[in-house]
Amino acid sequence: MADPIKVLIVDDHQVVRRGLRTFLEVQDDIEVVGEAADGAEGVARTEELKPDVVLMDVKMPGMDGIDALRRLRELDLSARVLIVTSFTEQRTVIPALRAGAAGYVYKDVDPDALAGAIRSVHAGHILLQPEVAGVLLSQEESNSGQGRGGSLTEREREVLGLIADGRSNREIARALVLSEKTVKTHVSNILMKLDLADRTQAALFAVRHGLTR
Predict the structure, then answer these.
(1) How far apart are the C-alpha atoms of 160 and 206, rounded to whole Å?
(2) DSSP letter at 195?
(3) Taking a C-beta distance cutoff of 8 angstroms, is the pair 139, 108 a contact?
(4) Which distant-in-sequence residues (6+ apart) come within 8 Å of 203 by Cβ?
(5) What letter would DSSP give residue 6?
(6) pTM (two decimals)
(7) Is residue 84 within 8 Å of 114, Cβ to Cβ?
(8) 195 φ, ψ (degrees, to nearest 5)
(9) DSSP-assigned letter for residue 43
(10) Cβ atoms within 10 A of the Cβ of 145, count?
(11) What is the pLDDT of residues 122-173, one digit of tens each?
(12) SS3 readout for 115-171
């Protein structure tokens, strides 16, 4: 049997943390390894506990979820972050995804769907609410335009397809028998050629234009 998915819960409301823990602890393949009450503590606990998935609220006192996401990305930690929040505004959703969130669900999500979301992001997938995906796709389309996928080399197309699969640079390097440094260069070239801001936009571009593997 595979090791359970280690989860850290970051939310400023104790009742929310307790509710999430109570449900997740009955899942055979999920283990709650800790909790944090704000973004700063969430970053520290992520460094300490090395969870596979972090459930992160957005609006918290002190360091909020988006700043915590940025800090985790700066630290290059391997944990995947799933935003779990009651805030549905696009002005909250988009910055969270830009900051590196692997997914975004609302606090009224069905418990079984939440467990499924944790498993999905842990497997490397990008989990977006349909309306969020629509906004990002429209932005990507207006920014990148038609036909730019043709400017990519064959190797860049391979890398882009693996980005769309949710693979990390290390995993892409292993799959294509390249160094991580070379993969990073390819990713930078892809974003520059397609005029995209980040890996999330790149993944959506790949799906929209049929460039997935």
Answers:
(1) 7
(2) T
(3) no
(4) 126, 163, 164, 166
(5) E
(6) 0.67
(7) yes
(8) 55, 50
(9) H
(10) 10
(11) 888 777 655 555 555 555 555 544 455 557 888 998 999 888 888 888 889 9
(12) HHHHHHHHCCCCECCHHHHHHHHHHHHHHHCCCHHHHCCHHHHHHHHHHHCCCCHHH
How many CB atoms are closer than 10 A to CB 200? Answer: 22
Do the Cβ atoms of 128 and 103 come closer than 8 Å? yes
Do the beta carbons of residue 23 and residue 66 sit within 8 Å?
no
Query: Tokens 């009742």 label which residue?
Result: 15
96 vs 103: CA distance, rounded Å: 9
Contact 31, 121 (CB under 8 A): no
Please give the DSSP secondary-structure letter assigned to residue 26: T
Q: Say what the pLDDT of residue 146 is.
A: 46
Helices 130-144 + 199-208 axis angle, to 10: 90
Close Cβ partners of 174 (under 8 Å, ≥ 6 residues apart):
none
